[in-house]
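User: Can you predict the 3D structure for this chain?
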Amino acid sequence: MMALKTREQVRMNRAWTVLGTRFGDDPTKWKKKVKQEDKYLSRCKSAPALIHSSGVGQTLAFLRSRGSEPGKNLALDIETIVKQVLHLNTSSLIGQLPSMNSGMYCAVTEEAIEACSWLALYLQGEGVRAEGEPEDGSEKDPAMSTPPANFAQATYDARIALHEDVSDLIKKACES
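Assistant: Here is the predicted structure, written as structure tokens:
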């Protein structure tokens, strides 16, 4: 019998798979690439605020139109994760957004924000720094100076502790 997975486990798995496809299967080499990851991480960290202020469709369109490879890649990766987690069989998520009911639109919004969170957490956990962050880690939390032995569980715990309120806010907004 196959074990049931929580939605967080599915999100976590999809984000890891997308990053492996995007940057290579060996995460220890991610921070050694030609600074593509740091720009990608910067976009990951700023995308949730854009989604909250402008909506998921506008944010994906904005990321695609930036002309930079990391922005386009992030938009594609967010779409891939959202479609996989919500089991959407559509070629273009942006094209389907205007015809979605409000419940599905809220679910897409929540999954897009969660996708950004997981992508950013994994990249940061592997030592990738966002564009403009100091290499010495002076702005980094001293408690997280080295990745924990069980990184996946620690990432999951941190995600639950730090981002539970985002889901609650979206649910409250959708209910009203």
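The chain has a mean pLDDT of 80. Residues 7 and 85 are 8 Å apart (CA to CA).
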